[in-house]
């Protein structure tokens, strides 16, 4: 059986498209979860939490109106919280914890490299009508931020604040 050059070229192109078609990190598909445990790296806003240490769950809704509900959350210093993110929209959203400075820097990178892949324990990428979660231990008092850093979403105001109350000050 002989194949024409045209048939061969079409077959090669179809194969390439099949292999590379899923390479966009922030399309409408969710990121596959890695089997490895979360990296326990201390950040200014806390450290990855252990599911067995969760003391409460907070549901955060994400919408295509580029808003989080609630957009203000208060936790106590030392509290391990399960943040459950429900995407009520039709497009991909994400939840990224951090300082304003770090979120600004990450948002700028996302504009330059919109297909960049990343999966940190303080991030959740949530497809349309899907649910994601972050388990986080807020071990440092202060005010921190969260945002959707998909290009255009952050600029549209898809942001929020987390206040971590100092337990020494709160108990006085």
Structure report:
The protein has 172 residues and is α+β, with helices and mostly antiparallel strands. It has a single domain (25-170), classed as Immunoglobulin-like, CATH 2.60.40.420. Helices cover 19% and strands 34% of the residues. It is built from 3 helices and 10 strands. The chain has helices at 5-20, 100-112, 167-170, and strands at 47-48, 56-63, 67-69, 72-76, 79-87, 93-98, 123-126, 131-138, 142-147, 159-165. The strands form 2 sheets. It has a 5-stranded mixed β-sheet, with no helix packed on it. Strands 4-10-9-6-7 form a 5-stranded mixed β-sheet. Strand 2 and strand 3 form a beta hairpin. The protein is globular, with a radius of gyration of 20 Å. It starts with a helix and ends with a helix. The model is unreliable at 1-35 (pLDDT under 50).
